C-alpha cells in the first residue's frame, strides 16, 4: 500500500532512526566546520551548506517529486523572493526574453524593472485562459503563478509547459498557494517548482523561507551556486522550524481547504458581495482546470471577494472577532486584508483577500457572516 500524504509529511527528510538520537536533529549553528587537511565533505563553510538545510531540502524534495519520477533536488532560501530572484536572475541573460504573469505576486513588477535594467525583455499576460501561450515565442523562461495571488486564477500548467518546452524555454511555477500537497508542478512538466515557505508551507506566521525544487541536477547546481554568490541563505533556526512544521502540513492544508470551501459556499449566497473567487467552488471559472491539476481537493486557504467600496471593506475587517487584519496567508490563525491598501495589485478598493486558518469551520464562517452584517448595518 502506498503511503498517503499525511504519512509522508511526518517523516519527510528525517534521518534513519538511531539509538539515543532525536527524530529531527536540532538546528546546527555553524559559520564553519572542522576541516583538517584537504578540503573534503559536504560541510566546510556556513554559506555553502548546513546539515539543517540538507534535512529540510530532502524533505521538500520528497514532497515535490513526481510520483514514480526522478527525485527533486531542492535549494532553500531565506524568503520566497530570494528563491524567485535566484531563478530569474541566474537563468536570464541580456538579450533573453522572459514571460511573466501580469496578475502574479505584487513584487513581480519591481523584479521586472530589474530584469529590464539588465537588458532582459519581459512580456506579461494574464494567468486566466492560458493567455501566456500567446506571448511565448522566443522566450527563454516562462514564469507561471497558479493559483495566482491574490486573484486566484488558474492556468493549465501541463499545456503551458509543453508549449514553452517546444520553444526551448525553461518553465518555473510559483507553487506558494497550493503547497506541494496541493500541486506538484514538476509532475505537470515544469522545470522548477518555486515557493514562499512563509505562507501555508510553514503555516505559523513566524518564519520567512523560500525554496527552489527541480528534477534536473544541472539546474539545481546553477541555483545552488547563485545562493552561494548572493549569500541568500536561511538561518538554521528558521530552516529547523520549517522542517518541524512540515509534520502538520497535511492536517493544516486539509482543514484550511475544507473551511475555505465552506466559507466560499456561504458567501456565494450573499448578494451584497461580488467577485467571489475560490478554485474549489464548482461555479468558479478556475474550478475545472484546478480539479484536473491540483491534488486531493486541496485548493488552498484563500477566498477572495469584493465589497462595494473601501468603507464597507474597512468596516467588515474591523467587525471580525476571530480573524486578524494582517497581510500574508496560510497561517493557523485566519487573517484578512483589504488588498488595495498596498497599491501593488490591480484590484478594486473593496477587494478582500481572506486567508482561512485552522479554527473550527463553523466559527470562521459565522464570524465572517456576522461581520458582513455589521459592515452593512452600520452603513445604513
Ligand atoms: C508571499 C509570496 C511570495 C514572496 O514570498 P516571501 O517569503 O514573502 O519573500 C512569492 N510568491 C507568492 C505567490 C507569495 O504569496
Describe what you observe in this structure.
The structure is a single chain. With 380 residues, this protein is an alpha/beta fold. It has two domains: 5-246, Aspartate Aminotransferase, domain 2; 250-379, Aspartate Aminotransferase, domain 1. Helix content is 36%, strand content 14%. The chain contains twelve helices and twelve strands. The strands form two sheets. Strands 1-7-6-5-4-2-3 form a seven-stranded mixed beta sheet, sandwiched between helices. Strands 8-9-12-11-10 form a five-stranded mixed beta sheet, with helices on one face. Strand 5, helix 6 and strand 6 form a beta-alpha-beta unit. Helix 2 (51-64) runs parallel beside helix 8. The site of pyridoxal-5'-phosphate has 14 residues, from helix 3.
Give a concise summary.
By secondary structure, the chain is an alpha/beta fold. The chain has 12 helices and 12 strands. It has helices at 5-11, 51-64, 80-91, 108-117, 157-166, 179-182, 217-230, 236-246, 249-267, 287-293, 310-319, 361-377; strands at 73-77, 97-101, 121-125, 141-145, 170-174, 192-196, 210-214, 274-277, 302-306, 324-325, 335-338, 351-355.
Looking at this protein, list some descriptive labels.
about 375 residues; alpha/beta; Aspartate Aminotransferase, domain 2; Aspartate Aminotransferase, domain 1; 2 domains; seven-stranded mixed β-sheet; five-stranded mixed β-sheet; 12 helices; binds pyridoxal-5'-phosphate
Number of helices: 12
Bound small-molecule species: pyridoxal-5'-phosphate
Named CATH architecture of the largest domain: 3-Layer(aba) Sandwich
Q: Total number of β-strand segments?
A: 12
Strand order of the largest sheet: 1-7-6-5-4-2-3
Spell out the helices and strands N to C.
Answer: HHEHEHEEHEHEEHHHEHEHEEEH
The CATH homologous superfamily of the largest domain? Type I PLP-dependent aspartate aminotransferase-like (Major domain)
CATH class of the largest domain: Alpha Beta
Mean pLDDT: 96
Helix content: 25-40%
How many domains? The number is: 2
Main sheet attributes: strand count, strand direction, barrel closure: 7 strands, mixed
Report strand %: 5-15%
Q: Which fold name fills CATH's third level, the topology of the largest domain?
A: Aspartate Aminotransferase, domain 2
* Helix/strand class: alpha/beta
Radius of gyration, CA atoms, in whole angstroms: 21 Å
Q: What spatial form do the alpha-carbon principal axes imply?
A: globular
Q: How far do the termini sit from each other?
A: 59 Å
List segments where confidence is low: pLDDT < 50 over at least 5 consecutive residues. none
Amino acid at each position: 500500500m502506498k503511503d498517503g500524504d499525511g504519512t509522508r509529511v511526518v517523516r519527510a527528510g528525517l534521518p534513519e532512526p538511531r539509538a539515543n538520537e532525536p527524530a529531527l536533529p536540532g538546528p546546527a549553528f555553524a559559520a564553519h566546520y572542522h576541516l583538517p587537511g584537504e578540503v573534503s565533505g559536504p560541510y566546510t563553510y556556513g554559506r555553502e551548506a548546513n546539515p539543517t538545510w540538507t534535512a529540510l531540502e530532502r524533505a521538500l524534495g520528497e514532497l515535490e517529486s513526481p510520483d514514480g519520477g526522478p527525485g527533486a533536488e531542492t535549494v532553500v532560501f531565506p524568503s520566497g523572493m530570494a528563491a524567485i530572484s535566484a531563478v530569474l536572475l541566474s537563468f536570464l541573460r541580456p538579450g533573453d526574453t522572459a514571460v511573466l504573469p501580469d496578475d502574479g505576486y505584487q513584487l513581480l513588477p519591481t523584479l521586472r524593472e530589474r530584469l529590464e535594467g539588465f537588458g532582459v525583455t519581459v512580456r506579461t499576460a494574464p494567468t486566466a485562459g492560458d493567455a501566456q501561450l500567446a506571448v511565448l515565442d522566443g522566450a527563454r523562461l516562462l514564469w507561471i503563478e497558479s493559483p495566482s495571488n491574490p486573484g486566484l486564477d488558474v492556468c493549465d500548467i501541463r499545456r503551458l509547459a509543453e508549449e514553452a518546452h517546444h520553444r526551448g524555454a525553461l518553465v518555473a511555477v510559483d507553487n506558494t498557494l497550493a503547497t506541494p500537497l496541493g500541486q506538484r508542478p514538476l509532475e505537470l512538466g515544469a522545470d522548477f517548482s518555486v515557493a514562499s515557505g512563509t505562507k501555508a508551507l510553514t503555516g505559523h506566521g513566524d518564519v520567512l523561507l523560500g525554496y527552489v525544487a527541480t528534477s534536473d541536477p544541472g539546474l539545481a547546481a546553477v541555483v545552488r551556486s547563485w545562493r552561494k554568490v548572493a549569500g541568500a541563505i536561511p538561518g538554521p533556526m528558521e530552516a529547523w522550524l520549517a522542517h518541524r512544521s512540515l509534520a502538520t502540513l497535511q492536517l493544516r492544508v486539509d482543514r484550511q481547504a475544507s473551511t475555505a470551501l465552506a466559507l466560499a459556499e456561504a458567501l456565494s449566497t450573499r448578494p451584497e458581495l461580488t467577485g467571489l473567487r475560490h478554485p474549489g467552488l464548482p461555479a468558479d471559472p478556475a474550478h475545472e482546470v484546478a480539479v484536473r491539476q491540483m491534488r486531493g481537493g486541496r485548493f488552498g486557504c484563500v477566498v477572495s471577494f469584493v465589497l462595494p467600496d473601501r468603507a464597507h471593506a474597512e468596516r467588515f475587517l474591523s467587525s471580525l472577532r476571530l480573524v486578524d487584519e494582517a497581510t500574508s496567508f496560510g497561517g493557523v490563525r485566519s487573517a484578512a486584508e483589504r488588498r488595495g491598501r498596498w497599491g501593488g495589485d490591480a484590484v478594486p478598493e473593496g477587494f478582500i483577500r481572506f486567508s482561512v486558518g485552522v479554527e473550527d469551520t463553523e466559527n470562521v464562517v459565522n464570524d465572517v457572516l456576522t461581520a458582513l452584517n455589521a459592515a452593512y448595518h452600520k452603513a445604513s
